[in-house]
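[audit] Reproducing an earlier prediction to check determinism. Same input, same settings, fresh worker. If the tokens differ from the archived copy the diff job will pick it up downstream; this log only records the rerun itself.
[audit] input (129 residues):
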Amino acid sequence: MKTLALIAHDGRKAELVAFVKDHYAFLRNFKLVATGTTGTHVRQTGLAVTLKLSGPKGGDAQIAAMAAEGKIHAIIFFRDPLGKHPHEPDVQMLLRICDLHNVPLATNPATAGYLLRGMQQEYQHQQPS
């Protein structure tokens, strides 16, 4: 089972939860991991989510470490590009780790939709006929 990480800045959490609800049936096929507060919101959809620390307390760094270790197959991170975030160095490190280790990263709903469609095609090709 592949692992998908979910992260959202405070101003984008509701948008991520809506996205998760829209893709609930497919996301059930993944092991989900999320930063603490985001994961708590996503759990309200009924999906099982492993919680890491909240982003400002090191959750972004924990997920980046998992990506570097090959334990995360893709990340959906709804970022707030207009807000100031005290953990911005961790966010930048996460982006760098994804680039360095070739981990797919979607930062908005449009890209996340394409990411899931690609993963769905891969998933369907792996299922026995």
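[audit] rerun output stored. Observation attached for the diff report: The mean pLDDT is 92.
[audit] end
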